[in-house]
Amino acid sequence: MKTAFQMEPLSAVTDKEFSTTLLLLQEGLRRGYEVYQFAPLDLSLREGQLTAKAYQVRELDLGKTPFFGIDDAKRVNLAEFSAIHMRQNPPFNIEYITATFLLEKAKTLVVNNPASVRNSVEKFFPLDFPEFIPPTLISADFDEISEFKVKYREIIIKPIYSFGGEGVFLVRESRNLAALIETLVRHYQTPMVIQQYIPQIADGEKRLILIDGELKGGLLKIPPKGEVRANLGHGGRPGKAELSARDLAIAATVGKELKKRGIILAALDIIGDYLTEINVTSPSGLVDFTSLYNVALEKDYWDAVERICHSRVGGNP
Q: Is 61 helix (H, G, I), strand (E, B) or coil?
């Protein structure tokens, strides 16, 4: 198999021990695949042919410095690849959106499906499952947000396209709410996502991992004391998660839609009984999951990719 990862340069990876992308890339090398790496701006579409200026990855050993060995960059025809993996980190901005349009021209398997990634934004996608989400408002209008605040008293405000817990606020008092809304809307240039505060966040946020629509399990992200963000990058710590019947129902329902949309790797975030996000752009958590449960989800991921490549008409397994 010849495969490529659209991602940040290997030299720019700062959290290598916890990187899901490196875990997946390393498994590809273990299987003897030709593995390449390129960034979104390395893509070119010339007379209908999508190419990338890419580096072939020869070695990946996280215990070494540097931890990778690559060949000099060369331009490759992406139609000759079996699979391309969209693994660049958010933000989901115009560069990210442009990359999805270009990768639609690849004429090969792209994980996750670029059109579905573009149309399944993490904080919008859960709105397709109203039976599972907390009371939610999307607005930049102060009066709308104020009325929502009066009804639910404690609310969470977060930017639509932020990631990693950036710009997330718990609002208990109405004092300075107008200033907060004005500042966030001016900075992010979008409406905000406003949701009823779920106090069970103190017990942790569950992250459920799905591969090709199938639930593989979940881990618990436990926030630091006094914090409403459970993101591991903000001091959250991972733990084992006990999944409820509600969690399983959410995973089963969302999993069917993920499979329909060609989203092979996804991560659902659940607080209490509520689905809050569906991560499809660059889902993470596989390293912590592997460590906690002594399983190898990277193998399940590649087994799914191989299976889909073999089933595709004209695929290049």
A: coil
Give the pTM. Answer: 0.94
- Strand ranges (DSSP E) for the chain? 2-6, 34-38, 43-46, 49-60, 68-70, 74-77, 83-86, 109-111, 136-139, 155-159, 169-171, 192-196, 205-211, 214-222, 237-240, 265-271, 274-279
Find where tokens 């947000």 sit: 145
3-state secondary structure of 251: helix
Q: Identify which of 128, 127, 105 has the alpha carbon closest to the alpha carbon of residue 115.
A: 105
Q: Which residue is associated with the tokens 């996000």?
A: 277
- Tell me if 316 sits within 8 A of 81, measured CB to CB: yes
CA distances from 223 to 40, 123, 173 (A): 33, 20, 22
Q: What is the pLDDT of residues 11-41, one digit of tens each?
A: 999 889 899 999 999 999 999 999 999 999 9
Map out the domains of the chain with their CATH numbers: 2-114 (3.40.50.20), 135-197 (3.30.1490.20), 202-303 (3.30.470.20)
Digit-coded pLDDT (tens) for 231-259: 877 678 899 999 999 999 999 999 999 99
Note whether 138 and 192 are within 8 A (CB). yes
Beta-carbon contacts of 311 under 8 Å, excluding residues fewer than 6 positions away, are none
Return the bridge partners of 37, or none: 5, 55
Cα-based distances in Å from 187 to 40, 94, 172, 191: 25, 16, 22, 11
Count Cβ atoms below 10 Å from residue 239 Cβ, excluding itself. Answer: 12
The tokens for 167 are 């710009």
Place of tokens 């499809």: 280
What's the N-to-C CA distance of the chain in angstroms?
6
Nearest to 21 by CA among 301, 309, 208: 301
d(CA 109, CA 6): 13
